[in-house]
Structure formats: structure tokens, C-alpha cells
Design brief:
Blueprint: H1 9-25, E1 30-34, H2 55-69, E2 74-80, E3 93-94, H3 98-105, H4 107-114, E4 119-122, E5 126-127, E6 130-131, H5 136-146, E7 152-154, H6 164-169, H7 181-192, H8 197-217, H9 231-244, E8 252-253, E9 256-257, E10 268-272, H10 297-304, E11 309-313, H11 318-326, E12 330-336, H12 347-352, H13 366-377, H14 403-415, E13 419-424
Parallel strand pairs: 1-2, 2-4, 3-5, 4-7, 10-11, 10-12, 12-13
Antiparallel strand pairs: 5-6, 8-9
Length: about 425
């Protein structure tokens, strides 16, 4: 999302190339690429104002990333479509007029699909009364009849449909990730005549055709594992991060703008805020990443200013932050959100919507039983074998910073006017003087 702030589609294509190269080196065949939706048709979108919400920018950046990735592996664009809230995503029905749907919420998908993406993932929500995983109007009439998409459609995980036979007839090719509703119900549907074998053959043909097409043109040589977390790719990540940052204000302090900081003008820096020294890489759900190393703000500042004294206070205490600020020449205050504030919202959804329990598959393997057991137990402290935490985050209830963050900024700035405020968030934030 931050990469949209670079306004550089060529840079995004380089990012896709690096992702595809690392994916192929590790044996992956398919990369799922999440598209940020424009603000929700229901009026409940929590990311209003993000640069990534403009459908033109979304389409161009999504296409650039797809093209870069598909130099090496297949790409899948997700979530199709109107997946614009988290907490109610398993049950919300988005009602929308046809012209608004096609002029605001679908152009970015169309751009990527017509640009040759291999696969599309359906979202959890309903649109105009039908769940996306079994929505003929969107999966067949729009994707295939109007846009001539010839790839395959894959479902989101576990809670993605309600009628197994209807989902296959209406255009969902792959049901993921477990042996689930289709395994339970398609056999009977075929016997009863509710489903025809021609529907099965159609889905199989689309899946196999794309795999065969891909294998026939894919590069023969698998990249060496040394490309993963390589210096070249770390340098690219740093370039993207620096280009993504947005300077909101640079006000005069003592008759001069505070930024850029001049190391010759200070000897002590106070680094304050609860996010100052943590590896805050975002969602701890399905978007979690596992880099071999993360450089925190504190570590980065020490590396950038090796001859300066860095006084760190990485607590939520306004009083101790004020004390540190008063003793320093310059203050850097890091505030914002982590995965507990916004992110994937699974376990609480199960607790508030018991009907979802009926959609769990019969667990046949030890790994399935462990994974599903954690989710059904509703324990946020438990982790899957992958290390993912389940149930953190959710939709934010406000577009403002945490009240404690506001107190921190006001308190520290009162103690030292030479303050740089750094915002770390995954969405829009309302800022006031």
C-alpha cells in the first residue's frame, strides 16, 4: 500500500520481479497478490483516503506487480471483490448499483485480468445477495463473458461458500484450502443431478490448461536460493521504503526547518514510543512474513548515527518519554499501529458468528486437526506450526491515532520543540495540530 505513494509503476514491476524470483527459488508456483479496495460501498471502509484506493492507480500498480511476478511464477489477484471490511467479511452482503460497481470497484481488477494474470481469488463477502464464492454474475458473467478471463478462480479459505454444487456451476474452479464442502457434497449432487459432470470437466480443463500453458513457457532453470533475502533485494526494499515515505509537514523550529536533520547540530537523540524498537512488519495472520532479520527503528538510527548518543524509551509512558525528550537535542517519536490494532480477524468472528463452525471440514490429518483446533478453540495466544497468530487485529473503530499516542506527541513536543513524529500505520490517519 505504501508503494502507491511512490507513483512509480516501473519500481513496482521491479518489486514483482524480485518476489517472483524468490518465490520460484523456494519452489512456489503461484503468488497471491492482494488488491486494496476503494472505500466500501456500505460506507464502512476503514482506509478512506489511501492512495491505493484510486482504481486507476490500483490497476496500474497491480498490473506492474503482476507482470514482474509472472516473469517467474503464476500470479493470483485477490480478493474479488468488494472485500472492504474485516470484522464482518464472512457475513456482510454489499448492495451496490451496477454502474458504481463497474466504474469504481472493478476497473482495477479488469486492468490486471486483461493484462494476463493467471488466477483470481474470490472474496468471503456477498454482493447483491450472493456469496462471491458462488456468484454467477461476477465469477462467470463479468470475469469470463465480459472480460474474457481464461484463467482459474480459487476460493478464499474455509468460510468462502455455502453451496458446494452451486459454486462449481457458477465459476469457482478450486476450493481451498482443506478437503471441505465440495468433498462432503459434490458426490451426492452428481448422483442427484443437481450437478453435471460437464461442470466438473470445465473447471478441471481451466486449471490444467493454465498449468500446462505456464509450464510450456516458464524458465527451465530454478534460481539459486541465494536470491532469497539477497543484498540486491534488500537494497530494493530499502529503496522502495524510502520512496514510499510521505513528509506531511516540515515546520520551522528556531527559524529553520527541522528536516533534514543535520548531525553536526546535535549530539543526543531521544527515540520514544512503543514502536521504536519492535519488528512491526504488520499483520500476524495470513499476511505475516518471516524475514531472516528485521532492522528496528532503534537499530537503524544507531547505524545511521554511530557517533551520537541515542536515548531510547520504547514504552507507552508519556512521563518517561518527556524526561528523555527534555535531555536530548532532538526527539524522534514513533507512534501508530501494530497487528493488535488492525489486521486479520478470525477467532473473534467465530465466537460472534457460530454458524461458521458448521463450515469447518472433517479434519483428516494431524496438521489439519491442529490448525482447526487452534481456530475453533478461540485462543489468541496459540500459534500454528507456521508461527501465525490467529485472531489479532480487525477493523479500526476510528481513523484517529490511539489516545495515548496523541498524549505522547503533545507531551514530548512540550518538553522539546525539536521533534520528528513518525507514523507507522496500515491505513489512513486523521492528524490535527
Amino acid at each position: 500500500m505504501a508503494r502507491g505513494a511512490t507513483w512509480d509503476a516501473a519500481l513496482e514491476r521491479r518489486v514483482g520481479h524480485a518476489i517472483g524470483l524468490e518465490a520460484k527459488a523456494q519452489g512456489s508456483k503461484l503468488f497471491r497478490r492482494r488488491l486494496r479496495q476503494p472505500s466500501s460501498a456500505s460506507g464502512l471502509g476503514t482506509h478512506l483516503g489511501d492512495i491505493w484506493e484510486d482504481p486507476v492507480i490500483l490497476g496500474e500498480f497491480g498490473l506492474a506487480l503482476t507482470q514482474g511476478v509472472q516473469n517467474h511464477v503464476m500470479a493470483c489477484v485477490i480478493h474479488f471483490t468488494l472485500n472492504s471490511m474485516e470484522n464482518a467479511r464472512f457475513r456482510v452482503n454489499v448492495k451496490i448499483e451496477e454502474d458504481v460497481l463497474h466504474e469504481v470497484y472493478l476497473p482495477h481488477f479488469r486492468r490486471i485480468i486483461e493484462g494476463g494474470v493467471t488466477s483470481v481469488m474470490s472474496s468471503y463477502n456477498s454482493v447483491n445477495g450472493e456469496f462471491l464464492g458462488q456468484n454467477w454474475e461476477l465469477l462467470t458473467n463479468t470475469l469470463r463473458n465480459k472480460w474474457h478471463f481464461d484463467g482459474f478462480v480459487i476460493s478464499d479459505f474455509i468460510f468462502r461458500l455455502r453451496d458446494a454444487a452451486l459454486s462449481l456451476k457458477n465459476g469457482l474452479d478450486i476450493d481451498a484450502p482443506f478437503t471441505q464442502q465440495r468433498a462432503l457434497h459434490l458426490g451426492d449432487a452428481l448422483v442427484s443431478g443437481k450437478l453435471d459432470w460437464a461442470d466438473v470437466d470445465k473447471a478441471c480443463l481451466r486449471i490444467l490448461m493454465k498449468q500446462l500453458q505456464w509450464e510450456s513457457r516458464a524458465e527451465v532453470v530454478t534460481p539459486d536460493m541465494s536470491v532469497v533475502f539477497s543484498k540486491e533485494h534488500r537494497d530494493l526494499a530499502r529503496e522502495v521504503a524510502s520512496r514510499s515515505m510521505v513528509l506531511l509537514k516540515n515546520e520551522m523550529v528556531h527559524e529553520a526547518p527541522l528536516l533534514p536533520l543535520d548531525p553536526s547540530q546535535f549530539s543526543t537523540v531521544a527515540l520514544v514510543g512503543r514502536l521504536a524498537n519492535i519488528a512491526n512488519t504488520g499483520d500476524k495472520g495470513s499476511s505475516q512474513v518471516f524475514p531472516p532479520r528485521v532492522v528496528t527503528g532503534f537499530e537503524g538510527l544507531k547505524a545511521a548515527l554511530p557517533n551520537k548518543e541515542i536515548v531510547m524509551n520504547d514504552t507507552d509512558s508519556v512521563e518517561t518519554a518527556r524526561e528523555a525528550a527534555a535531555q536530548a537535542d532532538v526527539v524522534i517519536c514513533v507512534v501508530g499501529y501494530d497487528a493488535n490494532d488492525e489486521g486479520e480477524f478470525v477467532v473473534p468472528s467465530l465466537q460472534s458468528d457460530p454458524c461458521l463452525q458448521s463450515l469447518f471440514p472433517p479434519s483428516t490429518t494431524v496438521k489439519d486437526r491442529e490448525t482447526l483446533g487452534v481456530m475453533q478453540a478461540g485462543s489468541n495466544e496459540s500459534k500454528l506450526e507456521t508461527g501465525l497468530e490467529v485472531g489479532a487485529g480487525g477493523d479500526r473503530t476510528s481513523l484517529r491515532l490511539r489516545p495515548r499516542d496523541v498524549e505522547m506527541i503533545k507531551g514530548v513536543s512540550a518538553a522539546n520543540p525539536k521533534i520528528v513524529v513518525v507514523l507507522v500505520t496500515a491505513g489512513a490517519v486523521v492528524m490535527e495540530n
